[in-house]
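Progress note, sequence design subtask.
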């Protein structure tokens, strides 16, 4: 069994890792840590785990020592030193934060206000969105796990960009997220009375996920891609709906688009291209690692409208991290992730 450790186990992404790894057929949770709840059982923080997982939160260094793979579910700026320790000890480090996602340090400085403490270490990291970069992930020890919007948007528009169906200028990503995307810490806009029965955009045109999305799409296009990205906060717990608008190139038909998407994702278990006339909905992927994609054409403006729905806590965080672990350890990619979304 793979010995898995979770640093930051009491945050939302960390707790989701606990939930998913508890039923993994080839991995077991060996140790967990939490600064806020050190010495307490995970079931004290999340009563749903009572008598199912009563592990005590330890120190981060104990997790590193006792595990083969370490998941870091931490805010940005806290993973680089841990990654270096794991790398030197020949451990697999999977970072759910942003410290290793951006290839360009200047982008990291601009959007996160930090620096790369070990530039050589960053060269050994891999950006791990499996549906696009699976071959790059194999054999790597430092895994940059993509975020939620940065998974949903590329899944929606990536095939069209990669195959040259759309213009790379004028792409608009209009996204909506459940409140868990803001993390477990309290903030004014996630208080019940502010969130409930409301719906609003935030960080309009300046969200930190913008350069990460552009980085992925630029790799797929083999050319620089800039987007307009606007996220919104939904009064629901989980789920991300990404509606992406892109100008179609002249002569591209709906049939061509659908064939490109169906071929592109033909071997991807976790991506479901919906039939014509159906629309992606966060209701239908809840608690699962699936990403649903629906395709629509505005013939009047010659615009592709690609919609993706993912669970931000699973495919947008913990589930994708486990998918990446499975790839690195060369086991069945779906192991521990064959969760059926509830019907209602």
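Output:
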């Amino acid at each position: 069994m793979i010995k898995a450790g979770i640093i930051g186990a009491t945050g939302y992404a960390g707790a989701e890792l606990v939930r998913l790894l508890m039923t993994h057929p080839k991995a077991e949770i060996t140790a967990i840590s939490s600064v806020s709840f050190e010495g307490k059982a995970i079931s004290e923080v999340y009563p749903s785990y009572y008598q199912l997982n009563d592990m005590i939160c330890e120190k981060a260094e104990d997790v590193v020592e006792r595990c083969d793979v370490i998941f870091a579910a931490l805010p940005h700026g806290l993973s680089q030193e841990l990654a270096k320790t794991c790398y030197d000890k020949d451990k697999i480090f999977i970072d759910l934060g942003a410290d290793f996602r951006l290839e360009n340090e200047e982008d990291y400085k601009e959007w996160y206000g930090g620096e790369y403490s070990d530039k050589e270490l960053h060269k050994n990291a891999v950006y791990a969105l499996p549906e696009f970069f699976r071959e790059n992930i194999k054999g790597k020890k430092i895994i940059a796990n993509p975020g939620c919007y940065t998974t949903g948007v590329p899944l929606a528009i990536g095939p069209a960009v990669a195959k040259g169906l759309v213009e790379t200028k004028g792409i608009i990503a209009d996204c909506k997220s459940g409140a868990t995307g803001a993390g477990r810490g309290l903030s004014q806009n996630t208080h019940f009375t502010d969130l409930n029965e409301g719906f609003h955009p935030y960080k309009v045109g300046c969200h930190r996920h913008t350069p990460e999305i552009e980085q992925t799409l630029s790799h797929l296009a083999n050319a620089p891609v800039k987007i307009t990205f606007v996220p919104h906060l939904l009064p629901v717990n989980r789920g991300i709906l990404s509606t992406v608008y892109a100008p179609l190139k002249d002569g591209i038909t709906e049939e061509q688009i659908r064939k490109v998407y169906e071929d592109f994702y033909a071997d991807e278990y976790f991506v479901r291209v919906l039939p014509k006339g159906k629309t992606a909905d966060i209701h239908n992927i809840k608690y699962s690692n699936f990403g649903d994609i629906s395709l629509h054409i505005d013939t009047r403006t010659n615009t592709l409208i690609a919609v993706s729905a993912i669970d931000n806590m699973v495919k947008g965080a913990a589930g994708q991290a486990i998918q990446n672990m499975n790839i690195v350890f060369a086991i069945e990619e779906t192991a521990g992730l064959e969760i059926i979304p509830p019907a209602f």
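The chain has two domains: 2-146+315-328, 149-311. Work on this subtask will continue into the next period as scheduled.
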